[in-house]
Write a structure and sequence with these properties.
80 residues; two-stranded antiparallel sheet; globular
């Protein structure tokens, strides 16, 4: 009986972790002139998850599948 309970718990733990998988999202942020937005902030709305763009305006962030990203850059309007 104990082995059955432990097996069920293990299966539930695996299922829960599979449902909570984050996505790796990559992209490039650029200005309206087409230049790289170096140091722009990319964040997941409603969380503390965030990153900044590199010298080429590229970012790499892990976020939940249903997340909304927010992009902000000094001197520009924030876009969700």
């Amino acid at each position: 009986m104990r082995k059955i309970v432990l097996s069920i718990c293990a299966v539930l733990a695996v299922c829960a972790s599979a449902l909570a998988q984050d996505l790796r999202i990559t992209g490039t942020v650029s200005t309206s002139e087409g230049t790289a937005a170096v140091g722009a902030t990319v964040s997941v709305v409603g969380t503390t998850i965030a990153t900044i763009t590199d010298i080429n305006g590229e970012y790499d962030i892990k976020a939940p599948a249903d997340a909304t990203l927010s992009f902000s850059y000094v001197g520009m309007k924030t876009v969700d």
